[in-house]
Amino acid sequence: MHWEATKMAAPMAWGGLVLTLFGRPRSFLSVSGKVAVRIRSRCKSGRNVLQLHRRGIFKDIFPEGGDLPRLLESGPQTVYCGFDPTADSLHVGNLLALIGLLHFQRAGHRVLVLLGGATARLGDPSGRSSEREAVSANTVQENARGIQEGILGVFHNHRLCFCNDAEAANLGSLSILNNWSWYKEKEVVGFLDTVGRHFRMATMLSRHSVQSRLKSSEGMNLTEFTYQMFQAYDFYYLNQHHNCRIQLGGTDQLGNMISGYEFIHKVTGQDVFGIMVPLVTSSSGDKLGKTAGNAVWLNRNKTSPFELYQYFVRQPDSNIERYLKLFTFIPLAEIESIMDIHRNDPGKRNAQKRLAAEVTKLVHGKEGLETAKRCTRALYHSSMDALETMSDEELQELFKEAPFSENLLEPGTTVLDLCRKASAIPDGPRGYQMITDGGIWINHRQVTKPEQVLILGQHILTNGLSLLRVGKKNYHIVKWLNLAE
Ligand SMILES: N[C@@H](Cc1ccc(O)cc1)C(=O)O
């Protein structure tokens, strides 16, 4: 249906096709009586997403004290946020920008996601202490596909799981563009002649992203230095072609946003705005990005729903209230009561579990959340039922590092045979002794008799799988081919 259609259309977005998903063209709104009433009935201030400041999601606004509230209240606006496809998935660090965009969409504004097919190749120096490695055009293109899929998934899940019918009908549109579509046609002399002239060296040099690098031994190359000009031109381009006056990004994007503001102001005389969402940092204060080496990804093939869920369940109490406000759409009053209950019995981690459930549902949908909970029960509560209902994919996601082997079950196969088939124990008497010493578990139950013949429903689950554990946490997964359906 809708989702299928967008999925199919997705690869075509590459090369600059504007992909407009969800939401209807405004002209349609004005002719459809029913929708028009709904739109009119939205109170003026409902569009003013800045009222969400108590959630902490919109941390800073540039220029300060500007007329942004009035602009927002005047009617649906277009807001954009760019993502450079330097990897094939976004990570939790990017999630707040997406959630910021979703708040705009909920308030009826038009959302424009910009994939930086061109800018990813230049490398944004903002917030980085070292140069980015060059990424080939092909890799960037593939990465953009992965990122687009992840973003579409989040918007789709949001509409499905976090909006009632009326809210879903009032969502603003979502479009995905790629800045390669305008840079691929630009010739360098013309660009420097028409755009470059508006950028003053002293201003560019004064940016924090430039200063911090110039002071370091790493230095900075010309390509990185010009990055701010490209992001500024993007803003200008979107302003001219999509009437976009608002850019959203992490706090590290302030310099690039100001460049855009200044450029647009100089060329058109128009005021535009930058809105910054907080940067998510780990408990040690590091930025949660992929360079910090601690990335939690949004795409399932890189971080499973279970891992994402557990990441949020593990958050310390000191983060939890702030994260509930930032990462979920739960009304503030309800967050207060969640926190009251939590404070009475913090050991239960109820607030963390709620946070984890909300985020997992947003990123992986209802089904992803079920997977995450099933995996949690199978692993931490040694639930046979949960193990039994798990698919191969879930099991492999859960025991990522665990070797997986496929075998044919022969009559009379014993515990020892299973351990050997899975190469889980050393050859000879030492392996045998590991079993008798109590170092082996099959499907969460300790087995101490090597000659015991495997029993269906106990050692072999009805889904044709055996989960073998050696010691504390060395897992092996065995799939019995002639039993699996
Ligand atoms: N510079 C942004 C990505 C971006 C790219 C192009 C833009 O026009 C805007 C933003 C970042 O690194 O996060």
TrEMBL record:
Entries under PROSITE patterns matching the protein: AA_TRNA_LIGASE_I (PS00178)
ATP-binding as UniProt keyword = yes
Q: Which GO cellular component terms are attached? A: cytosol; mitochondrial matrix
Superkingdom: Eukaryota
Q: Which GO terms describe its biological process?
A: tyrosyl-tRNA aminoacylation
Q: Which reaction does it catalyse?
A: tRNA(Tyr) + L-tyrosine + ATP = L-tyrosyl-tRNA(Tyr) + AMP + diphosphate + H(+)
Q: Describe the family membership recorded for this protein in Swiss-Prot or TrEMBL.
A: Belongs to the class-I aminoacyl-tRNA synthetase family.
Q: What is this protein called?
A: Tyrosine--tRNA ligase
Q: Which organism is it from?
A: Chiloscyllium punctatum (Brownbanded bambooshark)
